[in-house]
Amino acid sequence: MEKIELREHILRMQAALVQAKIAEEKGEVPIGAVMVEVNSGEMVAHAFNRRRLPPFDPCGHAEILAMRESCEKVVHDWRLNSYLLYVTLEPCPMCLAAMVQARVGGLIFGAYDKKGGALSLGYALHRDSRLNHRFPVLGGIYELECAGVLRDFFKKRRSMDSFHMEILRS
Asked: Which of 91, 113, 159, 165 allows an S-S link to 95, with CB 3.0 to 4.6 Å?
């Protein structure tokens, strides 16, 4: 992962942000992910959060969906050793554990998540020697832009919730 230039990371994170914006348009929390083949740099899969959309999957996080798409449509195997996962928000513990299980080649994320991010909460599963796979992680890529999309989404949502509460009180 050290060989990849910052501008390439940013381009890939911008692609993940496109997915996040699609999620937002659908009323979903704007988190997006893309899978990239390490050697070719080809983006092989992309996804956005789908927990609030049919089929209302509690595991419908962008990271999990991008890994599933990669395994099913590209790799035809469950191992993703030669793939990097780019996601706009620091993964939760469930997603980080899934990355260990899928044996991803590396993780690059945008915004840190102090309340729900696995690394921010101290779950460094990606480097736990008790587990069968370890991989590099790079955080804070295109951080302000990734955080801004989420901040704006929740700001709008809070104002809508306040508006609905006012209507109910009237």
From this structure: 91
What is the distance between the alpha carbons of residues 150 and 168, in angstroms, rounded to a whole number?
27
pTM above 0.90, yes or no: yes
The 10s digit of each residue's pLDDT in 25-59 is: 999 999 999 999 999 999 999 999 999 999 999 99
Range of the domain at 165: 6-169
Is 106 part of any domain?
yes
Q: Are strands 137-138 and 106-111 parallel, antiparallel or unpaired?
A: parallel
Q: Tell me the one-letter amino acid at 154.
A: F
Among 130, 49, 50, 41, smallest CA distance to 87 is for: 49
Domain total in the chain: 1
Residue 69: active-site member: no
Q: Which of 63, 69, 72, 143 is catalytic?
A: 63
- Residue 1 covered by a domain: no
